[in-house]
C-alpha cells in the first residue's frame, strides 16, 4: 500500500518536496567504489531517478588507475 502511494506521488509530481529549494549550481559528488556493497544496484537507482528529479549522472569507469576524464566526459 505504501509503495503504491509513493509510486502515485512520483507519477503525479507530488513528492511533498519543498519547491523553494535554491536553484543554485550546487554539485554533489558520490564516490561509490567499495566492493560488495551494492554499488551496481545503487547506480541503477541513481539512473532511474535522475531524469525524474532533473539532475545528471556521470559514470566514470576508472580502470588501470587512469584518473583522467575522457574528452566526452569533460
Automatic annotation (TrEMBL):
The superkingdom of the source organism is Eukaryota
A GO molecular function term, named singly, is: sulfotransferase activity
The record's section on InterPro entries has: P-loop_NTPase (IPR027417), Sulfotransferase (IPR005331)
GO cellular component terms given for this protein: membrane
What protein name does the entry list? Answer: Uncharacterized protein
* Phylogenetic placement of the source organism: Eukaryota, Metazoa, Ecdysozoa, Arthropoda, Hexapoda
